[in-house]
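Usage

Read records sequentially. Each one opens with the input sequence:
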Amino acid sequence: MYMSLMFPLSPSIRKPPMTVESTPAASRVEAADLARAVQPFTRPDTRKAVWQIINTMVPFIALWVLMVVMVKRGYPYWSILVVSVVTAAFQVRIFILFHDCCHGSFFGTPRANRILGYVTGILTFTPFEQWRRSHAMHHDTVGDLDRRGVGDIWTLTAGEFATAPRWKHLVYRLIRNPLFILSFGTPIVFLISPRYFHAQDRTRERWSVVITNIALAAIVTIAGLTIGIGTYLRIQIPCLCVAGAAGLWLFYVQHQFEGTYWARHDSWDPMKAALEGSSFYRLPGVLQWFTGNIGFHHVHHVQQRIPNYNLERCYDNVPVLQKVKPLTFLASLRCARLHIWDERSRRLMGYRGPF
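and closes with the structure output:
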């Protein structure tokens, strides 16, 4: 699942977004050329969108029904857990549809994107308007050291880490620990944080939180009156844990990898942030399908209006996008040891220095 991992301890310095005039002239020309090259792929395709809804929602519902039957008939719980892993994979894919709706790219009309966004948001425990706003801020500030703190993983510079008090070291090490992210990260990101208003929320975002919470309460109530609350929890908890862990890992490696890009606001280049600060996560075909091509994350950050079903085609047809070095699954495991940004060497490193 693709999602924002937001921690209140993240530094957040709000400066005005960089204007085109503040970027180098050569960079502006290259960015303009790239924008024109990817523009044709931003056009939504209703037929592809509807087919994705069918091939995602129908199996997801069918697997849920299957697990309910298995619980009621007394199948071994381990067999239900096996089915829940596949169900969780479809829940990851549902989040990708939600993600596209937040960008207004899945369908051609805002109304259709909003309706599907609310539905898929409820299925993934995420308020549509609230997440859309925080995720938009992530796109506007990715790779900008002076505007960290919303929709990203908490990242300190080497200087900040060296001068931080001991308690902050301990909290930072805990939050950056992959075991913490993959275990406690899921309830924090999906079950706790989305249930309440955030400081930057406006009226629309607050209403989306209320609507999502009411819908989830209704689902739990109906489940309790029909299949039983115990059956619901035995199915939902493992699905959410697996899907959440997968989504958080995806989000982690999309910007926390060797060779990533960070810069101070005055020298921050949006194009470099997209091409160098967003990974090209090359996954096996099956995993690429379940994750909705989000591994082409550099393409997504170059133009966030490209729907997931056009990302690979855009990559195949725009040569400059193919110059980004792929990050394989095995190589991505090494990302877990990178924690601090060294401004001198311009690289992520471990707590004891570079590897």
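Summary fields computed downstream for this record:
- Residues 46-72 form the longest helix (27 residues).
- Strands lie at 156-157, 280-282, 326-328, 340-342, 347-349.
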